[in-house]
Amino acid sequence: MFKVAFNKVEYREIEALRMEYLNSLVEFQDLYLEFLIKESEYFIFSLDKTIGYAIVAPDSTLVEFFIVKEFANKGGECFNDLLNRQKITQILCKSFDYKLLKCCLQNQFTYSVQGFLYRDLTDRGIQPSAGLSFRYAILADLPYLNQQEDEVFEPKELLEDNIKNNEVIICERDNVVIGCGFITQVVSGFKYYDLGVWVNPDCRRKGYAVQIMIYLKSFCFKNVWIPICGCSADNIASQRMLSKVGFISNHKLLEFCIT
Question: What would the CATH number be for the domain defined by 120-250?
């Protein structure tokens, strides 16, 4: 019996398999994980051909693991070999990534809920309030936006490109910046767009986050895009806001601890 080979590769060598993986999921990928993946290392499993891949973040966190259906019986062997070789300390697993979830549960790893993934949506029939105006952010807005301390702006080194790509929408009332929205394509080639909202601290607790999110949601529908969201498990305010505009979280981002 041949042992499965394990090798570090460049991203381009797993790209085709990644597309197969993304298409196999019952729900779509999370933007936060995509940011991690860009800074990670990539590995392939192979016999006489490539049978799967893994993505490991710099802090030894397993972010993605996939074995093709034809070699599913090799999944456990590949998973355990990966954990040992790369000294994996934790695993981030979407609750709808059933193959990775199965590997984690079979090993009885302890876990915690790190985030809520919003992939279902109902129409609450709410319309943006009169008096609010929306426009694409321009580079002149960059210094102001860079001054804001909020996780929605992270990573800030991407903010200039976000503006150039028309991914940031400014909300104003009477020429005063109320806040902004982010519409970010999660993975190129797919019609899934992650939505994010920031509200000026002076304008919070007035319902503006809901108004901005309603606009972003409508903007996606007009462009035949699929809006999705994610937020950390401890961000109660964002969870309430997303519920008000009709987003439903039936899935979680889980963190498994390897002991």
Answer: 3.40.630.30
pTM, to two decimals: 0.93
120-250 matches 5-108 in CATH topology: yes
Distance of alpha carbon 138 from alpha carbon 127, whole angstroms? 25
Query: Cα separation of 62 and 90, whole Å?
Result: 6
Domain locations along the chain: 5-108, 120-250
Summarised one tens digit per residue, pLDDT across range 53-70 is 999 999 999 999 999 999
pLDDT for 78-98, tens place per residue?
A: 999 999 999 999 999 999 999
Q: What is the pLDDT of residues 184-216, one digit of tens each?
A: 999 999 999 999 999 999 999 899 999 999 999
191 phi, psi to nearest 5 deg? -95, 25
Q: Is the pLDDT of residue 153 over 90?
A: no
Query: How far is it, in rounded angstroms, from Cα 56 to Cα 41?
Result: 5
pLDDT of residue 115: 98
Residue 123 has a pLDDT of 77
| Fold for the domain defined by 5-108 | Aminopeptidase (3.40.630)
